[in-house]
């Protein structure tokens, strides 16, 4: 089975997990001391909401594998050229949205964090690696919006995985990916107390590269397992039991996201999340079609916009309204993020529809 249309439940979960990540960063910025003083397991406001990034990586691995599998009959003689064209398309699909958000973040950070024109100029110049998704390689420049690490790693791992998926699909998905995921996650569990954290330098790359690679490898396995599951014809009882398993898995993931449970449990939670994603993509749940609606697909698209536009929103609220209540911080940060996401989408679509880049910068005559 090749995925031919969007999965409504996945798109809705994208939106929900994007909100969880937003609330995690708000909580981290405005309630960090309180979180540190909480007892393990105590409920909080998305103090472990970073687990949403793991969902995005697993889904990204699934979609990457689905795209490669769909081309399985195509020759791999020019796999280098094909990979370059795929990466070009992926880059230009996200770069305009990223550029809008990163420029605003640079402006906001430079204004609030620096106090002289010269320092602000240096801040802008030192942001060059963040603009072009290069910070994760280790270039020593200002990491303006650390949220872009997800895009940095996603692009990097896609560049590595795609030609392997196309040329050695069976071996790569069924042998290399599960072992790669287990070895990397096992190493991280041994060396780090949590899956969270992005800027720990391993000597060759940032910790977040390992995080993204292992979870995208799980996503590659997810596609293969989903295809196998869909070969079975489950009874009504079987579908109900598997649907209940899916719901319970997501409940456990969200419970972790909303507690101050020991961060070491983020590793088993990843595997629980993985099981849930497998079942979600398998469409075993009897009610899966309820969410296949245009409005849900739009919410899924909004997840990237929410993710990219939250950092400058949080900075503005922190600097302009530092003394309001935490609840008001949540409302203000969310409101500015959503407004920024809407404007970002409008500007990028307007430029794209009007072909302004081609019209003024490229001579097609």
Can you walk through the features of this model?
The protein has 365 residues and is mainly α. It has helices spanning 8-30, 32-37, 51-70, 79-113, 117-125, 128-131, 149-167, 169-191, 207-229, 236-257, 266-282, 294-320, 326-354, 356-361. The mean pLDDT is 89. Helix 1 runs antiparallel to helix 3 and helix 10 runs antiparallel to helix 11 (266-282).
Which percent range fits the helix content?
over 70%
Evaluate the radius of gyration: 21 Å
- Write down the overall geometry: globular
Residue windows where pLDDT falls under 50 for at least 5 positions: none
- Which H/E pattern describes the elements? HHHHHHHHHHHHHH
Strand content: under 5%
The count of β-strands is 0
Q: How many angstroms separate the termini?
A: 44 Å
Structural class: mainly alpha
Mean pLDDT: 89
| Helical segment count | 14
Tell me the major beta sheet.
none
């Amino acid at each position: 089975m090749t995925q031919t249309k969007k999965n409504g439940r996945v798109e809705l979960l994208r939106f929900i997990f994007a909100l969880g990540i937003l609330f995690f960063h708000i909580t981290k910025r405005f309630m960090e001391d309180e979180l540190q003083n909480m007892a393990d397991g105590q409920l909080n406001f998305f103090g472990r909401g970073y687990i949403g990034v793991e969902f995005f990586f697993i889904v990204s691995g699934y979609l990457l594998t689905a795209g490669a599998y769909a081309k399985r009959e195509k020759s791999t003689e020019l796999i280098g050229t094909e990979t370059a064209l795929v990466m070009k398309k992926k880059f230009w699909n996200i770069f305009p949205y990223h550029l809008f958000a990163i420029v605003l973040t640079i402006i906001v950070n430079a204004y609030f964090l620096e106090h002289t024109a010269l320092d602000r100029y240096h801040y802008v110049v030192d942001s060059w690696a963040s603009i072009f998704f290069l910070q994760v390689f280790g270039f020593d420049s200002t990491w303006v919006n650390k949220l872009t690490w997800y895009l940095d790693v996603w692009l990097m791992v896609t560049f590595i995985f795609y030609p392997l998926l196309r040329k050695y699909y069976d071996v790569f998905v069924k042998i290399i990916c599960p072992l790669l995921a287990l070895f990397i996650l096992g190493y991280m569990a041994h060396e780090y107390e949590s899956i969270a954290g992005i800027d720990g330098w391993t000597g060759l790359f940032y910790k977040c590269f390992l995080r993204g690679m292992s979870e995208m490898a799980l996503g590659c396995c997810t596609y293969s397992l989903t295809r196998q599951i869909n070969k079975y014809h489950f009874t009504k009882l079987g579908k109900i039991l598997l649907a209940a398993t899916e719901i319970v898995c997501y409940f456990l993931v969200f419970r972790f996201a909303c507690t101050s449970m020991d961060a070491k449990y983020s590793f088993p939670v990843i595997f629980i999340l993985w099981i849930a994603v497998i079942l979600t993509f398998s469409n075993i749940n009897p009610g899966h079609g309820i969410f296949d609606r245009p409005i849900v697909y739009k919410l899924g698209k909004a997840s990237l916009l929410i993710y990219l536009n939250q950092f400058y929103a949080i900075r503005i609220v922190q600097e302009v309204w530092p003394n309001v209540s935490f609840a008001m911080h949540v409302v203000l940060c969310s409101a500015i993020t959503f407004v920024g996401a809407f404007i970002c989408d409008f500007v990028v679509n307007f430029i794209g529809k009007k072909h302004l880049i081609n019209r003024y910068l490229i001579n097609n005559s």
